[in-house]
Automatic annotation (TrEMBL):
GO MF, any single term: phosphorelay sensor kinase activity
EC numbers: 2.7.13.3
CDD domains assigned to the protein according to its UniProt record, in alphabetical order: HATPase (cd00075), HisKA (cd00082)
Catalyzed reaction equations: ATP + protein L-histidine = ADP + protein N-phospho-L-histidine
InterPro entries: HATPase_C_sf (IPR036890), HATPase_dom (IPR003594), His_kinase_dom (IPR005467), HisK_dim/P_dom (IPR003661), HisK_dim/P_sf (IPR036097), PAS-like_dom_sf (IPR035965), Sensor_HK_Regulatory (IPR050736), Sig_transdc_His_kin-like_C (IPR004358)
Natural source organism: Sphingomonas abaci
Protein name: histidine kinase
Lineage: Bacteria, Pseudomonadati, Pseudomonadota, Alphaproteobacteria, Sphingomonadales
Keywords annotated in UniProt: Kinase, Phosphoprotein, Transferase, Two-component regulatory system
Length: 781
């Protein structure tokens, strides 16, 4: 059979098509094989994942049949997987209530397609299984069925319970912290990541005078004023940049008052910054006051006489005053290094201002223990070389430091020693005095007495040792007095001395006839000293002297009367002699020769001198008797001129140059004109008696508002110093006048007597060869 070309072509096409189909089938088979292998691998992988997964699944069909894996049966504690939900309860896996609840959830999911979730705890197990169910997808081929996933939530629920408790605790803590922040008196705030205020407490609201927290946050009211340097958020920026809390002290105005705040900004992990402010205005004021007090205290310590040194907690010297530096010879540059306590002690030892001790390191260690004392001060006394005595007080300070005070008690110790010696001397003196002494306290009790006091009153030592009151003492001694009622004078004296602080005294006579003077003397300590002195002998001597004085007075009166009578008797012949001599000198008996005239002048001079002498003796006698001075208004110028004129005849006979200078200022005085005239005459006669013929006398009188002055001077030979000293002594030895004549010299004593009777003064100045000057000063009144 012959194949045609067309048939061959058709057969070739058919073979190609068959070959192509075979190839396609081979490719499809290979692909299916690969897909089956991949599916098997996926299935194996899913099975492995289900085995290790905390989740397992069961399928519940519309007819209530259950497809449950073995793993889920183990979770429920079943020996075999359950075929129905009822078998879960019958097999003991679930309680009837839980099984009924699960069945109700499954039926609801079948009917309404609503998913459910339920936690189930199998019987006798601590496991908690979460059942989550939903309608089964159609791909599972279980129309109307429900797929239920089971999760082992044991660990999850425990963690959830723990986290819940922790959340509750943290919530409570948050609530407490929020309440604490809100109730805090410190302004507190929180800034977000952009450093804007997002939360503030009530204290902050009150400080910025806002309505509430929302108003403050809305208006962004800042507590700190914008003082430059970054403004009020500078601290927050610094805290966030450094990652550490920032602190700054800034001023602020709160409720109209300028306050100082210490502001703290704390960066938080959230990116925000929390802050709070502490009002330290009182603290700053207290710190400033403490600083001023410390400066004032140190200034005061520098002015103390005691040496003071303060050591810090590290035992270094932090302060010492000027007396400390002087006492221990401390240089300022050495002290500037703040030496330690041990070095200071060593320095004090080097300058010899520590007591001599054998074990200096041990002694130093004991003093170092003063830093460890609580609040009790320690005191000791250092005896140094040279007799120096230091009182040392160590006072521990609250900060762990030590304050040392060194007081130089050398003088006090010496004074105390001297005082003890004086007390012993006083006691010995007190007991051995001849006076009877007793000291009564302010309450009237007898405190001290000497032996003479006890012996005088004859009382027992036991009675005095009981310190009786002054009234009881007076009653006890009354029988020993001549007049017992006089004993009550003693209490009066003691009360006067203690209460009124007045000294009173008197005399008393004992029953045995002895006389005593007593006195109550107030003492500086408020007590009274009662003293008694035996004056029996002096009374007897006084009586004898009084009798002798009476006898002398009687003899003096007789003598005075005799002198007065003799003076008057002598004046009568002197007057006759003077009269007849003047008549002869005047030529009544005829002219006499020259020599006779000289004799008559000598007679007249002698008569005049004798008359003056008699008058002076009479004046002295009357002055001793206390002759009175008549007081009146006296023109002193007229008295001076009258006295000069009275002596003119004698002055002319001796050819003496008398100059009289009476100033208008001499004025008038109150006194006796006759006695004042006699004073001037006595002064002129004294000058006249000392001058040779041709000498000069000056009588000068002047005065001022308070006093009048009379001066008489001459150019005579003057007086020796010993004669100047006794010029006004009426009992002085007579001296020789020029020409060898002796004068009694009663003029100057009489002049002094009359001047002093007028309340004035008289003075004499004289030197040999320089003449004599006598000055009298009289008061106006």
């Amino acid at each position: 059979m012959m194949l045609t070309y067309g048939m061959a072509a058709a057969m070739g096409a058919l073979l190609f098509a068959a070959l192509l189909v075979a190839v396609l089938l081979l490719v499809a088979g290979l692909k299916a094989r690969r897909e089956a292998a991949a599916a098997w691998l996926d299935n194996v992988r899913l099975q492995a994942m289900l085995r290790v997964s905390p989740t397992t699944v069961m399928l519940i069909g519309a007819d209530g049949r259950v497809e449950m894996p073995r793993r889920m049966a183990d979770w429920f504690g079943l020996a075999q997987p359950a075929m129905t939900l009822a078998e879960l309860a019958e097999g003991g896996g679930l309680s009837e209530a839980e099984a009924a609840g699960l069945d109700a959830d499954v039926q609801a999911a079948q009917r309404a397609g609503r998913g459910f979730q339920r936690a189930i705890r199998p019987r006798g197990s601590q496991r908690v299984i979460t059942m989550r169910g939903d309608r089964a997808p159609a791909e599972l081929g279980a129309t109307g069925g429900v797929i239920v996933w089971a999760f082992d939530a044991t660990e999850s629920l425990s963690e959830i319970d723990r986290l819940g408790a922790e959340a509750a605790r943290l919530g409570a803590a948050y609530e407490a912290l929020t309440g604490l922040i809100e109730a805090s008196p410190l302004p507190m705030w929180y800034r977000d990541g952009e450093l804007r205020l997002t939360m503030v407490n009530s204290a902050y609201v009150e400080a910025v005078e806002g309505r509430d927290a929302a108003d403050v946050v809305t208006r962004q009211l800042e507590l700190i004023e914008d003082m430059g340097s970054g403004g009020p958020i500078a601290g927050a920026k610094a805290a966030r940049a450094s990652g550490r809390p920032s602190e700054q002290v800034v001023p602020a105005t709160i409720a109209g008052d300028r306050r100082t705040l210490r502001v703290f900004d704390v960066p938080l992990p959230t990116g925000g910054v929390a802050g709070f402010a502490v009002d330290i205005e009182e603290l700053e004021q207290a710190r400033s006051g403490a600083k001023r007090f410390a400066e004032a205290q140190r200034g005061m310590l520098d002015r103390l006489s005691a040496a003071v040194a303060q050591f810090g907690p590290d035992h270094s010297l932090v302060f010492c005053n000027q007396p400390f530096r002087r006492m221990f010879a401390m240089r300022a540059e050495w002290l500037a290094d703040r030496p330690e306590f041990d070095r200071v002690l060593e320095r004090m030892r080097d300058v010899g201002r520590l007591p001599e001790v054998r074990d200096f390191p041990g002694w130093k260690a004991e003093r170092r223990e003063w830093f460890m004392l609580t609040d009790e001060a320690v005191e000791e006394h250092w005896h140094l070389r040279g007799g120096t005595h230091l009182r040392v007080v160590g006072q521990p300070l609250p900060d762990g430091g030590l304050l040392l005070i060194f007081e130089d008690r050398t003088e006090q110790v010496q004074l105390a020693s001297s005082r003890d010696t004086l007390l012993r001397v006083r006691t010995a003196t007190f007991d051995n005095l001849s006076e009877a002494l007793g000291v009564f306290a302010a309450d009237g009790r007898l405190q001290l007495w000497n032996n003479r006091f006890r012996a005088l009153w004859g009382v027992e030592e036991e009675f005095l040792s009981s310190h009786p009151r002054v009234d009881a003492f007076a009653e006890r001694i009354a029988p020993r007095l001549k007049a017992p009622e006089r004993a009550m004078v003693i209490p009066d004296l003691v009360r006067s001395a203690t209460n009124e602080r007045q000294q009173r005294g008197g005399s008393i006579v004992l029953a045995d006839g002895r006389h005593f003077e007593f006195a109550g003397v107030p003492l500086p300590d408020g007590n009274a000293l009662f003293t008694m002195l035996d004056i029996t002998d002096s009374r007897r001597a006084e009586q004898a002297l009084r009798e002798r004085a009476d006898a002398l007075e009687a003899a003096h009166r007789v003598k005075t009367q005799f002198v007065a009578n003799m003076s008057y008797e002598l004046k009568t012949p002197l007057t006759s002699i003077s009269g007849f001599a003047e008549m002869l000198h005047g030529g009544y008996a005829g002219k006499l020769p020259r020599q006779a005239d000289d004799y008559l002048e000598a007679i007249l001079d002698s008569v005049e001198r004798l008359t003056v002498l008699v008058d002076d003796v009479l004046d002295l006698t009357l002055g001793d008797e206390g002759a009175e001075i008549e007081k009146g208004d006296v023109d002193l110028a007229e008295v001076a001129r009258a006295a000069a004129e009275a002596l003119r005849p004698a002055i002319r006979r001796h050819r003496i140059d008398l100059a009289v200078e009476v100033a208008r200022s001499v004025g008038r005085v109150q006194g006796d004109a006759q006695r004042l005239r006699e004073v001037i005459e006595h002064l002129l006669r004294h000058a006249l008696g000392a001058l040779p013929d041709g000498g000069r006398i000056l009588l000068h009188a002047d005065g001022n508002a308070g006093r009048a002055r009379i001066v008489v001077s001459d150019n005579g030979p003057g007086l020796e110093p010993e004669n100047v000293e006794r010029a006004f002594d009426r009992f002085a030895e007579p001296h020789l006048q020029p020409g060898g004549e002796r004068a009694l010299g009663l003029g100057l004593p009489l002049a002094k007597q009359f001047v002093e009777a007028h309340g004035g003064t008289i003075a004499l100045v004289s030197e040999p060869g320089e003449g004599t000057l006598v000055t009298v000063e009289l008061p106006r009144r």
